[in-house]
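Long-time lurker, finally posting.

We've been working with MFS transporter (Mesorhizobium humile) and I want a structural starting point before designing mutants. I don't trust myself to interpret raw outputs, so I'm hoping someone here can both generate the structure tokens and explain anything notable. Sequence follows.
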Amino acid sequence: MNLTSEQKKTVTASFLGWTLDAFDFFLLTFLLTDIAAEFQTDVPAVSKALFLTLATRFIGAFFFGMLADKYGRKPILMLNIVSYSVIGALAAFSPNLGIFLALRALFGIAMGGEWGLGSSLAMESIPPSARGMVSGILQCGYPAGYLLAAVVYGLLYGQKIGDFTFGWRAMFLLSFLPALIVLFIRSHVPESPAFAEARQHVKPGLLETLQKHWGIALYAVVLMMFFNFFSHGTQDLYPTFLKKQHGFDPHTVSWITIVANIGAIVGGLAFGALSERIGRVNAITLACLIALPALPLWAYSTTPFMLAVGAFVMQIAVQGAWGVIPVHLNELSPGAVRATLPGFIYQAGNLAASYGGPYQAGIAEAPGSSYGYALALFAGVVAVCIIIVIRFSPEKRGQVMTVLDHEVGAIPRKV
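Top reply, 14 upvotes:
Generated this for you. Predicted structure of MFS transporter:
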């Protein structure tokens, strides 16, 4: 993968933005039981924060994406990162569950913008031959953020420094850290070459573009609904599964989650690169097939070691499939709205899948049920659904990316 220095910095910035975005999100998954205890409620009630975060992300994808298609990928990416950092940290000061849920909903809006901005900036800045590998790298930011959250939780949670104890509120204060990436982006990352080239042209609007490409947009939203069930259905309640069903301490929960996310990074990198050889559709299909035989080991093992092995294999499959998504959605999207449409499609799929967490928790805590059963049910059904739906997807591996979409009549801008 031959990239220039500027291209490497662009990919690094996009990766770090998504990593720390995910770090902020996944901190919550380790703290559900503690927040429930402080606010004197149950886990399903607090898990509504997961629902609200996912449900509002499409608003951020649309809002920040529209700004980026108008003003550029770089400045709006910086604004977006500062927004999710500040709002994420404010959750530490929540006086009650209602305020906490409201802040997580606002965090979802800010979080929703980053993926579309970072992926369009990166994909428009690199050669076509590098897209598969870079797609895997970018998507690995998500499990890398989860892994970082697991490490921080294992190292800091419950630790005492004098009279101060690292409780759940202190953990959310760490959300300020991503704002530091803005300094790096401002100093070292150039604007997307495709966007810079398009400044001299009038681009068609989102509605005009959607009217011409409504079929692929609708299909992609359905696909991303299943993808979000796949990832969040195997990740968000897994720490709770380890704590409540198996009674593991924070250290054990942390290292099992770390192993799972190492598997996720391996899967994202491997299948992103593999998609350059066998195609985007085939790579996603293969990754989902791996998830099916991993189900018993992942959800029904009884020892920490075997659960970790199962989680490692499951996340190879889940994030292996996801590792192809940044490049696949960007290749499918018309250039004039590439900062808006892929992110909006991704987050609209999130909206459709957003109640998965509370629904899973309800199944898990029903009489005679378990978290293992709820997790396995979701993962198995959704893996099969993705295998079926992805076979209908167009394959546009290696397509030239410009911001100007000649099919819908981009015209020179009058000066």
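Before you design anything, note these points.
The first strand starts at residue 160 and ends at 161.
The radius of gyration is 20 Å.
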